[in-house]
């Protein structure tokens, strides 16, 4: 294959053998065809006109530095205090500061310049996630007409959510600069198309693609998955019990970055409701792994405090000298250990209020012993629910419903557990992460670039070639 693959993601993967489904899939895709992985340097510093070479084998990894101020405004600000809450239906947490959007655009513009300086005609680019929505728009302005794909890992916002943005119209214009826009679920695709349907600058072509000025974007769902075989292998690896003398009789597991979108307070409350109705002879535990994340953002400090309070209250109320019902671990656990914890759990709780996909749900299913599997309790608002109708689907806002689902899961017959697990496993295998990346890249390769490659036409500033400002748009639609 002559073309290189250039991947852009917020963080670069660490050195050494890659682990974790997404990283492995992208690593394999770049290693197979040759290419470059670009991401933000973990440390802030001086903004530079060149990339820093982080690694050269088996492919190049290039980092760009954020200044301290950009880290505040672009990363913690616009990306994580505007776009993240907005896409997770938490308009109440959106923090609108003009410098956030200014620096978000400035960082994407600088990154576009760095990429434009090194991109070759045949390269294809795959940009990941909400940190880089305007990147293709900025690249087009610099005369980069390569095929560019984008994958949004989080939910696509509704029209009402979008109206919270200072300039909602930019969203549609930025995304239209990609050739292929990949979303997690069919529901996300429907929301995106609704956005274009309501935008007078957009036109639907007979093949379902969206024409926006000179650009044509194809919007498709590519439900992301995990490396199923690898996770199953790790889960089945024999190892001494991690509990030592504290082995619980039976336990339900939860694994989430400590994020307000994951519905952790509701989950704890629901577990408390379940404990209320439990006979004294039953001593179930909730093992909750919740490593910290984005701790500089106030909303994350608040949720951490809230969760500690709830766990403390419930344990104070229900614990006995020889039983702690909620074991809340606020740090990361090794992946291998996590896989084994999943395998021995009677049930897994995924109670996200909004979630692009939720890989934990898929990891739990992959980790089970098919002869004696645990039960997945899954929020209907997680993308994973779209193809896993045989999980116990719950409304995460309804704590009584979650409490009932816990009881149902723990009492479920072996036959029903096997039947539900087999159906969920089939869905998990169908979205294996290697298939996910090859489907996305296959489709991106088939996309026609809107304009012929015109290297050297870099101008900087001005409107993107496919832009729709002014009367061009009307002429185009006439
Ligand atoms: C975003 C979207 C979408 C968690 N704690 C530990 C640990 N983890 C691992 C899990 C899982 C991953 O982190 C979390 O993935 P999720 O999909 O659940 O959630 P986000 O981090 O929010 O990811 C999401 C995803 O992107 C992919 O597109 O599904 O909707 O929000 O793999 O196992 N891993 C280890 N220790 C921990 O303590 N080793």
Number of spatially distinct domains: 2
Class by alpha and beta content: alpha/beta
Q: Could you report the average pLDDT, rounded to the nearest whole number? A: 91
Low-confidence stretches: 453-463, 466-478
The CATH fourth-level homologous superfamily of the largest domain: Glycogen Phosphorylase B
CATH-defined fold name of the largest domain: Rossmann fold
Spatial shape: globular
Helix content class: 40-55%
Record field, number of beta strands: 16
CATH class of the largest domain: Alpha Beta
Sketch the major β-sheet: 10 strands, mixed
Ligand species: GDP-alpha-D-glucose
Q: Could you say what the CATH architecture of the largest domain is?
A: 3-Layer(aba) Sandwich
User: What share of residues are in beta strands?
Assistant: 15-25%
Rounded Rg: 23 Å
Kindly report how far apart the N and C termini lie.
40 Å
**Lateral strand order in the biggest sheet:** 3-4-2-1-5-6-7-10-9-8
Task: Give me the number of helical elements.
Answer: 16
Which properties best describe this structure?
6-stranded parallel β-sheet; 2 domains; 16 strands; 16% strand; disordered C terminus; 10-stranded mixed β-sheet; 478 residues; Rossmann fold; 16 helices; single chain; alpha/beta; binds GDP-alpha-D-glucose
In short:
The protein is α/β, with parallel strands linked by helices and 478 residues long.
Helix and strand topology:
Elements: E1 5-11, H1 21-33, E2 35-40, E3 52-55, E4 60-64, H2 68-87, H3 98-118, E5 124-128, H4 135-141, E6 148-151, H5 159-162, H6 168-176, E7 180-183, H7 186-197, E8 202-204, E9 210-212, E10 215-221, H8 228-236, E11 250-255, H9 264-277, E12 284-289, H10 298-318, E13 326-329, H11 335-344, E14 347-350, H12 359-367, E15 375-379, E16 392-394, H13 399-411, H14 414-430, H15 433-446, H16 472-477
Parallel strand pairs: 1-2, 1-5, 2-4, 5-6, 6-7, 7-10, 11-12, 11-14, 12-13, 14-15, 15-16
Antiparallel strand pairs: 3-4, 8-9, 9-10
This protein binds GDP-alpha-D-glucose.
